[in-house]
Structure formats: C-alpha cells, structure tokens
Amino acid sequence: MNAPTTPPTHGGASGPGGERNRFTPAGAPWTAEAEELPAPDGPGGLPVTGEGLAGASGAVRPRTPVQEHHSPLGDRWQPLAYRTHAREHERPAEEPPTSRPAPPLPPAPPRAPALPPAPAAPPAPPTLPGSGKAPSPGGSPSSDALLIRRTLAEIEPVADKVTSYFYALLFVRRPELRALFPAAMNIQRDRLFKALLTAARHADDTAILTAYLSQLGRGHRKYGTAPTHYPAVGECLIDALARHASRTWNDATQAAWVRVYTAISQIMIDAAAEAERSSPPWWQAEIVGHEPRTPDVAIVTVRPDQPYPFLAGQYASVETPWWPRVWRHYSFSCAPREDGLLSFHIKAVPAGWVSGALVHRARPGDVIRLGPPAGSMTVDHGSDSGLLCLGGGTGIAPIKALVEDVVRHGRSRPVEVFYGARHDDDLYDIDTMLRLQKSHRWLSVRPVISDGPTLGLSGQLPQVVRKYGPWNAYDAYLSGPPGMVRSGVDTLVGIGIPAHRIRHDSIDELMASAAG
C-alpha cells in the first residue's frame, strides 16, 4: 500500500518527541545515536516485506563491520540501471486499488535490466538484555498467547483495515522505507495477517514457532532487512492493533504484544545473523535455458553465481529485473546437480507479474535473483517407507525432484506418482516422467485427467488416488494448486495416512504463488 509521505507532526512513540521506545531493551536508555542509525541502501524490505510477520526489538547497533557481497558475475549488474528501471514502474504515493491490476508489459529491451550487487547483509546484533524468549510448549496456552489470540479474533473481520492502517503509519513515520516495498500491496497485506495468525496459532509450541520465524528471518535478508528497521515496525503494528481492537485492548494486552513481539524479532534476527555467516542474502542466477512446453508453461534453467545449497522438494523465492521487489515462490524441478544448475517449471497466470515475465519475456542471458531455499517437503532417506506423490499441473516439478533424489541415494523403495492435469495436452512433462519409470522398476507413474477424454485415468486427482492403495504404509507428498492440496490432504487423512506423514508446502505460500 502506498501511504502519505508527509512526516508526522509528533515525535512518534519513541525518541525526543515521545515516550520511551516500547522496544528499547530493558535497562537500556534511549539515545539519539541508537535511533538515528541509517537504514541500508538498495532494494529490500522490512521485517514484514514479502513474507509476512516480523518482530520488534531494541534499537540495536551493529557490532561487526559490514561485509560486501560481490557476485562472480561482476559488473553486469549496475545499480544505476536497475534503479532507473525501477523508478519507471513506481506508482505515486496513494492508495492502490484493492484488486491487483494486470501489469502492463513495456516493450522488451534486448536484454533484461541489470541487477545490482547484493547489499551488505545485516550484522549479527548483540543479545537484548531482558528480551523475552520463545513461548514455552505445554498443555494450556500462556496468558500472553491467550491475550494475543483474543486480539486477533477481534480484528480478523477487519484485517484489511488493520494492515492498511499499519502500512500507512509506517510510511508516514518512515517515508524513506516505502521504496523498499512492491508497488502493489494487496498481497502484502494478506501475508501480514496470515503470518500473525500463524505465529499466534503456534505461540505455545516453541519448536514450530522457532522454525517458522527462523525461516522468515533468513528469507528477509534478501530485502535488505536490518535490525534498525524492527522498532518502527513494532511501534506501528502495536498502534494499528490498539486502534482496531478496542474491545480487547488494554494495558495487559499491549504488554503481552510487546513481550511476544520482542521475542519474535529476536528469533528472526538471530536466524538472519546465523545465515549471514554461511550464505549471501540472495543469489544472482543467469538464465541458461528457456524451454516453452505449452503456450503458458516454460521450463527455466539457471546458473547461480555461486553454489546454491538446497534439498529436493524445496522452493526458492524469485525476483525478476522487470518488476523489482516483487517475489514469487517456485519449486525446484530437479535434485541437486553436479553442474550446479537449477530448473523451475513456470506457469504464466493471468495478470502474473513474475510468472508472465519468466514465461513470455525471459531469455537465455537474462539474470534473475533467488532467495534462500525453503520448505520441508523433503525425503526422509532414513526410512524405508514408500512415497505416494500427487502432482497437479506444474506441481509435478518438485515431485520429479523427489524421484531424482531417490535415484541419487541408490535405495529401491516404492514410489507411486499420480500426475494430474485438466487435459492430455496439459501433461507437459509426462514424457520425462515415463522415461524415469522405464529406468526404475520401483517407480510407477499414472497420469490423471479431470476434464475431457483420455486414454488414462479420469477424475479429480485425490479421488482417483483413493481407488488405489492401501497407502497407510506410505509417506505422502502433495504439490499443486491450493484447492488440490487441501482436498488431497483431507482425502489422505480419510483413508488412514497419519497427518504427520503428509507433506506439502504452506497453503498460504501456494496461494501467494498462484497470484503470479
């Protein structure tokens, strides 16, 4: 969301003009030096950009020198060219329409706009004195968790207003940060509230909450997130919640939000600091292969500028130079390869900013950005259980990667693949899957068509799977449209597969990726 760009007339909630920052570490007085640390230059975002929830911590001062990340691809990425192109697509500072407009595609240049080198990653901050720890697991919810869930229950019917007000506050108080966000904010608003709900839902499960927030913290490095961004985000979120949760908001509720939010931010900061020691905030990746398979589907192969560690079944966030600061998630369609190449199956969706550019515009030689790998839909190679895999549409990409991963590990275990599509012509990678089946006796591939005539299986993918089996001794993997994944999970649980043995990507992330 664009917001007014006039500075506030008051001192805000921290600093000389206001009361003490609610996210200043306990026992650490506010100082002008801590408040005035500059935000980093370059493309990026706040702890809530792109993937949702972030926390608030004290105004932390860097304690280690900033290390520059230099791409081996050298000066092919010029910041000036990238920033000039980005400005051409900026929108004026006003409220965008609620529905995402179809992005107009300007005439394609002979090459993709240049991308700048990665900015310096945020340094590892000192531990906050007195900061809260992750909520402890247990039988009954903690008092803080109960207060936070009551707040979220009250604001859920007006979640769009809350998130719009939050971003308006943030951009009024810190107008220089607006340029770090994508032009269209509708998806961003949804992600913020869904992330809040996710954190609240697992507030008393330390393991799940820490894993979720750590992944967010690592992923947010690609936006240029720094510890100095967290206080402003926390202040604005608390103020937005207080305004719209009048029935449940009181001093105890505010104190609970501050405690939990401070703990959340510390988990994210720690995860980012740990990741900084072993990987860059993002990877530059040159497109070396672009193979159209249907009018709307292309297989895109890239060469990262440095080693990219990932596991089969995971996904990466992708940014194109045509639409800066707009990231979408795509699963890898291959297991790790000796040559280091990565492949993605991209379907151009209507009005898709990233997918449309990758399918219809990208060519070999263009360069994209990759965020760190994420996702837990991976194979447990310590188990002898069979694999039941459901892949719908381009959801066959990570399923293919899982099959290749089983091949790489050299262990024969039954793998049953159901490859679903609407029409026979939409089974764009069926030849590849059948070749794999021919080479490995433990692999079975069954195409399933939901609409129109076919020589294979016909019907909705989850319902067809129900006719086979039994599957109770299998680990299940699902990838495809959100509706198919939801239906598939319900079906598999109904036929006896325990929920903890059913793996799929987050429904919220699937919906965001489906937006293109």
Automatic annotation (TrEMBL):
It is an enzyme of class 1 (oxidoreductase). It catalyses: 2 nitric oxide + NADH + 2 O2 = 2 nitrate + NAD(+) + H(+); 2 nitric oxide + NADPH + 2 O2 = 2 nitrate + NADP(+) + H(+). Keywords: 2Fe-2S, Iron, Iron-sulfur, Metal-binding, NAD, NADP. Residues 98-128 have a biased composition (Pro residues). Residues 42-55 have a biased composition (Gly residues). Its cofactor is heme b; FAD. The keyword Metal-binding applies. GO terms for molecular function: 2 iron, 2 sulfur cluster binding; heme binding; nitric oxide dioxygenase NAD(P)H activity; oxygen binding. Residues 85-94 have a biased composition (Basic and acidic residues). It holds the Pfam family NAD_binding_1. InterPro entries: Cbr1-like_FAD-bd_dom (IPR008333), FAD-bd_FR_type (IPR017927), FNR_nucleotide-bd (IPR039261), Globin (IPR000971), Globin-like_sf (IPR009050), Globin/Proto (IPR012292), MRET (IPR050415), OxRdtase_FAD/NAD-bd (IPR001433). SUPFAM superfamilies: Ferredoxin reductase-like, C-terminal NADP-linked domain, Globin-like, Riboflavin synthase domain-like. Residues 1-143 are annotated as: Disordered. Its EC number is 1.14.12.17. Residues 280-380 form the FAD-binding FR-type domain. Residues 138-273 form the Globin domain. Residues 129-143 have a biased composition (Low complexity). The keyword NADP applies. It comes from the Bacteria. This is nitric oxide dioxygenase. The lineage of its organism: Bacteria, Bacillati, Actinomycetota, Actinomycetes, Kitasatosporales.
